[in-house]
Amino acid sequence: MSVEFKNLLTLPSLREAEVVAGKAGLDQPVTSINVLEQSNVDKLRKELFNQEDKYGSEIVISGLMTIAHDVNAQVKLIQHLQHEGEIGLILYYVGVFIPEVDQRLIDICDQLDFPLIVMPKGEPSLRYSEVIYEVVEAIIKQEMEETSFSNQILEQISKLPSNQRNVDTMLKMLTDRTHSSIVLTDIRGQMINAGTWPSISTLDLSYMVEQTTDASIQTIDSVSVVKRPIFHNGMETIQFYMFKETQPLTENMVEQAAEVVQIFMNLWGQNYEAVNTQELVKAILNDESVKMRRLGAILHIDVGSISNVWFVHVQDPAARKFVMYHLKEEMKLRFNVLLVELFEETVVVFMDEGKTEEDFTTIASQVFEHLQEEQLETTIVQYLGMNTTTDVQAAYIKMEKYFKQAQFLYPQQQIFTQLHFQFVAECEQVVSEGEKAIRQALVPLQPLMQQEELLETLAVFLLDAQSHYAKAGELLFVHMNTIKYRIKRINEIVHYSVTKLPESLIYYRAIAIWRLLKNTGKRTE
Asked: Per the database record, which ranges form the PucR C-terminal helix-turn-helix domain (predicted)?
């Protein structure tokens, strides 16, 4: 069903390529090939947000043109690709865009057993399509010759890390191999898991499940369909459905696919029925609305009523479990629907509108104080009024992207809202646009640029103290009257009152960009 990586090197398009590193990984099976257009790892993490179906059988081809002269970025990319389940890189245009393959890149590939194949150097006429065509052709030919695939899939599953050895990954393997869509339901016909071919298939799976009632292969609306029982712990607990649109299913293909599911359930499905809230939180943050509704129904949780979310960062990773426990205890009396789970490195709290009259700012302040009393140092980010899973996912991505900048801009802040992050994103956009945009944004501060003490006072007064003289004095370790004098002096120099609207808005934005620039070392005079 797949071709070993080393056998692909005999193809005409790869015959002149050189294996420069990671030779120990050439025994791995290859089932697909992909083109890498984006080389920025931070952006890749967002674009490859849901990578649970990666199972280590795909090779990547790229010219790494966006990071051709940044070896550190190249090393970081290899580490990311290997972590995400890719098994090798075919590198183009060395000597054209990338000057040479750096020894550090070779070392990391050897360390990770990650094959690095370099196409003939100094050849700008090389085409990705030649390698793609021949690799895909070799994979298809192998699939046609080897009609038995169940054992190899099960062997691949057994070698996966435990966090990837799940039903979704198993179904992804089967759909890739059989080019069909597969659905698992409970005995009542409620969908539990589904894998589609192609991944963007518009086939109405719920309708097809309802129409498929026979264990024999049949055709419904030009789709070849079949239904088979799956036994778990000696009982028929799962129904297996298979749908193929391009050509008829074969009994051999159905039997092997069902066998893979059956054996998977026997070996690794011990906790399959024990669906937990962590999977539901994953489905929400990964914008998997169908899976979210299905899990919500199983867990009897009204996910449609969830409209508010907290992202809680815990200073000490070892304390996350304690934070989760205290959050559940604090919040369960306030909300009808409450989910508190760990997602990646962030504690996520999903809530409905609540059953008390308390506003979310008051709740957040009280919860934060109680956590502090327990010596649990946290930062709470509130996103309120979320309407869809897409909104939630976008909120999480923005929070992750700008969290460090937000902490620098507001070092005294422990409770953030989406407006904080929206403002930080707007300021970062100005900084990213270059010197002209930065100079224009800093024009209001120009008369103060040679007076660091006044700039720092203005930053603390507006950003940290919310225009409170006494609080600014505490933060700067000076008397409140000193702050009043400095603000008065600032007003005289800039000829405006930085404490009154609308002028204060202009200076708030300008001093925020000034502080962010201090963090990046891009001071503009």
From this structure: 454-506
Query: Can you give the pLDDT at residue 152?
Result: 82
Strands of 375-453, DSSP E = 378-383, 415-417
**Measured between alpha carbons, how far is 239 from 184 in angstroms, rounded to an integer?**
6
Cα torsion for 331, 335, 340, 345, to the nearest 10°? -80
Six-digit token string for 18: 């050189």
Q: What six digits make up the tokens of 226? A: 């079949």
Using DSSP's 3-state secondary structure scheme, residue 39 falls into: coil
* Backbone torsions φ then ψ of 515, nearest 5 degrees: -65, -40
Reference 241, options 176, 194, 204; nearest CA is 194
Reduced to 3 states (helix: H, G, I; strand: E, B; else coil), residue 234 is coil
**Strand 116-118 relative to strand 86-91, pairing:** parallel
The one-letter code for the residue type at 315 is Q
By the 8 A CB rule, do 60 and 36 touch?
yes
More confident residue, 44 or 372: 372
3-state secondary structure 124-137: CCCCHHHHHHHHHH
pTM exceeds 0.70 for this model: no
Q: Which of 4-18, 202-216, 220-234, 286-300 has the lowest mean pLDDT?
A: 286-300
Mean pLDDT of the chain: 86
ω before 120 within 30° of 0 (cis)?
no
Which residues on adjacent β-strands are paired with residue 182?
195, 242
Length in residues, the chain: 525
Strand segments (E) across 268-359: 308-314, 338-343, 346-351
The answer to whether residues 65 and 413 touch, using CB atoms and an 8 Å cutoff, is no
Name the token pair of 108.
């990391």
Q: List b or e across 152-175, with b for residues whose CB sees 16 or more CB atoms inside 10 angstroms.
A: bbbebbeebeeebbbbbbbbbbbb
Residue found by looking up tokens 């507006």 in the block: 462
The answer to whether 478 and 469 have CB atoms below 8 angstroms apart is no
Q: Tokens 């992202």 sit at which residue?
A: 311
| Per-residue pLDDT, 419 | 92
User: 29-65 burial, b if ≥16 CB within 10 A, otherwise e?
Assistant: bbbebeebeebeeeebeeeeeeeebbbbbbbbbbbbe
Q: Which range among 83-97, 159-173, 344-358, 361-375 shows the weakest confidence by mean pLDDT?
A: 159-173
pLDDT tens-digit readout, 251-304: 999 999 999 999 888 887 655 544 567 778 888 888 777 778 767 776 778 888
Amino acid at 320: R
Residue 161's contacts (CB-CB under 8 Å, 6 or more residues apart) are none
Would you list the DSSP string of 401-412? HHHHHHHHH-TT
Residue 227 backbone dihedrals phi, psi, to 5 degrees = -135, 135
The confidence score (pLDDT) of residue 30 equals 87
Report the chain's terminal Cα–Cα distance, integer Å: 63
Q: What stretches of 119-188 adopt beta strand conformation (E)?
A: 181-186
